[in-house]
Amino acid sequence: MFKMLNPKRFYYAVGRKKFLEFILLAVFILFFYGPLMNMLMLAFANEYTVPHVLPEVWGLKWWGYVFGQKSLVSSIIQSFTVAVITTVISMIFCIPAAYSIARFKYPGRKIFMLSFLLTNAFPKLGIYTSIAVLFYKYGLMGTYPGVIIIHMINSMMFMVWLPSSAFRSVHRQQEEAARDVGAGPIRTFFKVTLPMAMPGISVATLYTFLGSMEEAQGTMLVGLANIKTMPVAMYGIVLDSSAVQIGAVFAILLIIPSALMIFLMRKYIGPEAIAGGFKMK
Amino acid sequence: MSKKLKTNLAAYGMVLPAFMVVMLTVTYPIISAVIQSFKDEKTGSFTFSNYTYFFTEPAQLKNLLYTLMVVFLTVFIAIFVAYLLALYLRFVKSKIAKTIGTLYLLPRFVPAMCAVYAMITIIRDSGLIHRIGALFGLDITLGLMYHASGIIIMNLWFNIPFAAMMITAGLGAIPDSIIEGARDVGAGRWKTFTSMILPLSVKDVVIASTFVFMTNVGSFTTPYLMGGNAPKMLGIALFDQFNKYLAYNRSAALSVIMFLICSVSAGVYIYTNLKEQDWEK
Question: What's the pTM value of the predicted model, to 2 decimals?
């Protein structure tokens, strides 16, 4: 087994092609997952001074510290409240629009479709500052509705385009077959069309929820000091924390919801499903 | 009421609420920002000075050029690497390719801030790379923090998986039979690539690069946590104008400048998306 640790022996054992593939895999994992792994390690390091690569003392000291902060619990609650409300409201607005764009042909359809690109085609911060000026006028700064509007803008494009391409991939004949055996339009939608379009809708919902959980710049700008979601709290921690471990613990708390959602929806997540959200057809 | 009219009404009824949300939360603020950008801060009279400020003040002009440099480098490197990765994922069927094919989807779901923080723990001057170097008696000071190359590395972390995903989805749509057909009539690997694969995937490459461009022009989190004080990325410059100096008219002008930069890219994006290829008609 240990013979394999010698690169030369390894090269001759597996052949050139395999060898290059292993190098690719190693570089890929080091670049994309190395930082995250290092952060995970730091979160469990009680002591971590400069020349040491591995922590000198392992432990949960900094978890205790982070959970001792009152502001943390409130930021978790605020994050979840905002994310759930944002997701539900976007679904109410966007899913019917997606269905309409996918299934009907009417004048102006392409224009409606394009209008949702606006939410993603321009620099977010430019849109946020423009909105913030109006929010000051209408007293929405530092309120939940204001923050939720910001979060909705973020995800509207996916929430329309992804379900729309999912609806389009449901064959019309299947709907017609249901109608032929006597199902009404509403029943057909809920029993046939919706279940078949579910993968696309799930990925879009996941995107909206996670997007809202991690949105920071807009929340910071519009929420003022009243609404501090987890990412906003994280900005403060990163910029003025004395110990690198605090940030690591907090970042892991922030990743947990994503990890959980991805695990639950792993069936649906694939390049084709996600790419559908970036293309109009 | 005729049936046609009825379905059309239903279709409009479903799409209009979402459309109105976009109009109210994106289009209206952008229009009012454009109007505001031509107004004088104090008197409210018509002026170009908000714009000339960003093109004549040396510090601001530097920010603009700096942002363009970072964004173009990001787009070129990300798309190049992503294309190679996508080709590998499409045409190599091995266990390692499958593993990478799953792993590269996940960075998309990691909250931006966590990823940036994780990267900081590696590349900062007392970070992991420095410590590993010290093990071998080397003094590695990368100097990536507060420097353009740090921002670009982070941008690559975010955008390579995204671009590779878009391109893989496109390459996946090319049937094996087309490629085999080309090989059968005697085309070599390179010829097959330049005459079949490249032309068929160019649309996805353009879509991916325009999207990478648009999202990076206004990027905020990465430069906020990793960038230096001068020159700044435009997103940070805008945040400062708005939040620090409370210069709303100037920040409106800067937003419009950023919108204009992006609209070039958005135009290409829309054109590519709407142009149906001959064989798709």
Answer: 0.86
